């Protein structure tokens, strides 16, 4: 997706309300933080800062207007500091938040589109940052018992209260902290072995926390959730790498991307886990990040460690179900026709099939990728089995 130098490490992805992906990542060659988004027909790539001071632990989120907010650690020699950047639709504005902060950071926005960040203090504490304005911010220590706060992940519930998952390095435990409206409370989620690396947190429709994480003792990808009374955890897969990234779909079911001899993806259907290989080869899957669109389709950004490139994956089934709104009605001769689709715009089968007797129909054929567009060559049948509002291929 981006092949200009050594690019793609520390990737973080978000998907906007129209299903278009936005990705933040590091340009290691130039030591810039970069941002890419898909705008209907092509990827647009921007340098967020050209200070050349590096950009580690990048975390991206989108606000209610689909504008990106980004946190990252600028690792200038001797004085690493956390930067919070926001794009207002015209320009990027970057705010230095604090020195010796920013490792293992995670960002989220509340109902007022204000950014909130969790991160690790180099002194060994879990830190929460809010009210980021100009060159000032409120910085609170959430947990400072022993050496805690690495691999943080933050989420905000429907009451704008904060939830954070993180790693207790001293005791090798997975921990969870939340703000109850008055004070911060924390608890241990899993303490069986050396567990809690690379946590990823999301909240379900009842504001209950779900966490994916790595079990170093058993080399396992694990998943934990709170049912309102107790924590439960289970093993999803064996894994040869620490990183995990998770998102819950509209049915509160988890989708996780991780590395295990390549980039893998796991999801739970309500009864059992299903696992797939997205990109095979040990060079694929570093710095992976997952987000779901409004149709619950997974989008994944990740780093190609062999070619030093940023890569992006989306499930194939999304492609034949989407057509550009401004594309012409399907034309055909006899029973054969062809048409172009754009992978991120939606329209109904009824609209696309207008003028064709039989209404919505089933299409079969092959798909070939041409830049951002796909060309489908199909044969038409008269079976009226395609549901209204979609086209299947």
As for the number of domains, it is 2
**Per the principal axes of the C-alpha atoms, what is the gross shape?**
globular
The number of strands is: 31
Helix content: under 10%
- Cα-atom Rg, whole angstroms? 22 Å
Judged by helices, strands and strand pairing, the structural class is mainly beta
Number of helices: 1
N-C termini distance:
25 Å
CATH class value of the largest domain? Mainly Beta
The main pleated sheet reads as: 4 strands, antiparallel
Instruction: Please give the order of strands in the largest beta sheet.
Output: 1-2-3-4
Care to describe what's here?
It is a single chain. This protein folds into two domains: 7-314, Neuraminidase (6 Propeller), CATH 2.120.10.10; 319-380, no CATH class. The strands form eight sheets. The protein has a four-stranded antiparallel sheet, with no helix packed on it. Strands 5-6-7-8 form a four-stranded antiparallel sheet, with no helix packed on it. The protein contains one helix and 31 strands. It is globular, with a radius of gyration of 22 Å. The chain is mainly beta and 393 residues long. The chain has one helix at residues 349-352; strands spanning 7-15, 21-27, 32-38, 43-47, 56-62, 68-74, 81-87, 92-99, 103-109, 115-121, 125-133, 136-143, 148-156, 162-168, 173-179, 184-190, 195-203, 209-215, 220-226, 231-238, 244-248, 254-259, 262-268, 273-280, 284-292, 298-304, 309-314, 332-333, 336-342, 363-370, 373-380.
